[in-house]
Amino acid sequence: MKSILQQPIWRFYDQSISAKQRSPLESFATDDTLCQLVGQLASPPTIRTWVHDASVVLGIQDHRLPYVQQGMDLLKARGYQPIVRNSGGLAVVLDEGVLNISIVLSEQTEALSINDGYDVMVALVKSLFPEVADQIEAYEIVGSYCPGSYDLSIKGKKFAGISQRRLRQGVAVQIYLCVEGSGSDRAALIRNFYEESLKGEETKFTYPNIVPDVMASLSELMDVSLTVEAVVIRLQQLLNNMAEEIRVESFHDEEITLYAFYLQRILERNTKMLELK
């Protein structure tokens, strides 16, 4: 997978500061736009970094919780803005201590299975943190929020989750890295959300039974004062070793038009989904 990370050109789109006060829905639209651009070879392979202020991104199944409105009210009372995405997956926490990274590749140039996509991101994370690379494992951490077979952990404590989006021959592999703060505090927030949204009722879908102690931030696990800004710098340095050319670029004028299309589509789908509740 490291060979896939070696590209002649990497485009780097850093929104670790500029996206903070925007809705996470805008980030989903940005990755959809990049999927089309990269997938159709209108842009080089791209790595994007993004951070959002205190938000909890809920999946479709979360929105079907019997008392989800009370759960969302709890999140708001705790200072978090709930956002519902119209895709799979379950609740995740985004805040200024969580760095999101998207790797966007084209299926026209790389034949990528689902597992290949995940493995590329695992390789990137291990390259970012060589001091703990041999301790990083990928398997489902039971008791974490949004559990999956590619949860990343150190000594059984999850610090990251990976997802994928495929569109127009583009593949966006996305990860949230809990860099700063308390991983268990974030997990306790989601545990409280599910408790408030379920109120003990039985449901057809099995929601995770969250155990906050199985989650931690990289700062806690590495026992260093690691910051999101420092990880973005590490990533930039790594990119310099992975490509002959780095293009630090936001969207061009013609790309903004495409972004506006995808944002409108996501907002409309989100509105329709919320109306179905």
What can be said about this structure in brief?
The protein is an alpha/beta fold. The protein is built from 9 helices and 11 strands.
Q: What is the residue-mean pLDDT, rounded to a whole number?
A: 94
Sequence of strands across the biggest β-sheet = 7-8-9-10-6-2-1-11
Largest sheet: 8 strands, mixed
CATH superfamily: Bira Bifunctional Protein, Domain 2
By DSSP (H or I, 4+ residues per run), the number of helices equals: 9
* CATH architecture annotation: 2-Layer Sandwich
Radius of gyration: 18 Å
* Share of residues in strands: 15-25%
Structure description:
- With 277 residues, the protein is an alpha/beta fold.
- It has a single domain, classed as Bira Bifunctional Protein, Domain 2 (BirA Bifunctional Protein, domain 2), CATH 3.30.930.
- 39% of the residues lie in helices and 24% in strands.
- The protein has 9 helices and 11 strands.
- It has helices at residues 2-5, 24-39, 60-63, 68-77, 114-128, 183-198, 218-222, 228-242, 253-275, and strands at residues 7-15, 46-50, 55-58, 81-84, 92-94, 98-106, 136-138, 152-154, 157-167, 170-178, 243-248.
- It has an 8-stranded mixed sheet. The protein has a 3-stranded mixed sheet with strand order 4-3-5.
- Strand 8 (152-154) and strand 9 form a beta hairpin.
- Helix 2 packs across helix 9 (253-275) and helix 4 runs antiparallel to helix 6.
- The longest helix is centred in the last third of the chain and has 23 residues, at 253-275.
